[in-house]
Amino acid sequence: MANVQNSLPAIIQAVEWTSLPPEFRRLGLSEHSINQKRGKLLDSFLEGPIYVPALDLLFVTDIPYGRIFSIDSNANWTLVTDYDGEPNGLVWNHITKKIIIADFKQGILELDPISKELKTIVARFQGERLKGPNDLVISADGVIYFTDQGMTGLQDPTGRVFRLYPDGRLQLLISNGPSPNGLVLSRDEKALFVAMTRDNAVWYVPLLSDGSVQRIGRFSSYYGIGGPDGMAQDAEGNILVAHSTLGTVFVHAANGELVMKAKSPRGAHTTNLTWGSPSMNVLYIVESQTATILRVDWHCQGWLMKSGKE
C-alpha cells in the first residue's frame, strides 16, 4: 500500500484571492445563460484570465454580460469595457500591445486596454460566420491559434481550430473537434495542445513545417460531466488543465503523466487559468460559478512563449 500511495499524484490546495464585487453582479438571464446554461439565472460567469506585465493587471471576461474587468495587485476591480458580446478567452498580443478576445457572439476582437477601442479582426471563414470562438494562444512571432467551439460535442463533432497569421490569413487546422476549448503551444511551438471538452480529453496536434497537421492523438483523458477547459504551461514543460466540473487543475508532465492536482477550495467550476505577478510564478485560476479568482504560488515560472534566444 505504501508504494501505491507514493505513486499517487501530489495534491495542492489553491486559495481564494478575490471575488467579483457585489456592485458588478447582475442576476438575470442572457443569451448565454438561455442557450448554454439551460436558462439558469447568472449574476456573472467569469472566464479568460490573462496577466499583462506592462500594466501589472489581471484581466478577466464575464461571458453573459459582455464585460471585461481588470484586477490590480491589491484585488481592486475595474470595469474595462461593456459591449454587445460574449467574451470568453483572452490573450495579450505582445507585438501590437492589444488584448485579443475570443468572443462567442462576435468573433475574434482586438481591445486597446488604454483607449478602450474595440474592433473586429475575424468574424467569418470562407464567407460563413464563425461557430463561436472560445479561447486562443499566440506564438512568439504573432501567429494566433484559436478554437471555434460553437455548440459542438459528441453529437456534432465539427468544432474547429484555426491559425490566424499577422497579415490576416486564416487557416483551418482541425474541423472535427467535439467542443474545442483551451489550448497551449509546446515550448518549441511545434505542437498544439487542445482541450476537447466534450471528448473529455486533451488532443496533441503536431504542427508540420508546411503548415499542415497530421497524426493527431489524445495527450490525456478525464472523466465527469464537463471536461477540460482552459490550459497553461510552466517553464518545466508541465501542461496544466482546468477541468470545468471537477474543481481541479490537472498537471501533466510533458509525456502526459499526471504528476499533480491543484484543488479548488470553493466551487467545482474551475474553467480557466493563467500566470501572473511580476515574477510570473503565481497561478491564477478562475472559478466561474462563484466568480472567484483562486491562486497558487507555483514552484517555477509560468511559460508564455519562446524568446528570440531559443
TrEMBL record:
Summarize where a divalent metal cation binds, as residue positions.
Answer: E47, N181, D229
**Domain SMP-30/Gluconolactonase/LRE-like region, first and last residues per copy:** 47-286
Which controlled-vocabulary keywords does the entry list? Answer: Metal-binding, Zinc
What are the TM regions of this chain, as residue ranges? Answer: none
Q: Which residues bind substrate?
A: N134
Family annotation (Pfam families): SGL
Q: How is the cofactor bound?
A: Binds 1 divalent metal cation per subunit.
Its domain of life reads Eukaryota
InterPro entries (alphabetical): 6-blade_b-propeller_TolB-like (IPR011042), SGL (IPR013658), SMP-30 (IPR005511), SMP-30/CGR1_Lactonase (IPR051262)
Q: Which residues of this protein are catalytic?
A: D229
**So which cofactors does this thing need?**
Zn(2+)
Cite a single GO MF annotation.
Answer: metal ion binding
Q: What is this protein called?
A: SMP-30/Gluconolactonase/LRE-like region domain-containing protein
* Species in which this protein is naturally found: Aspergillus pseudotamarii
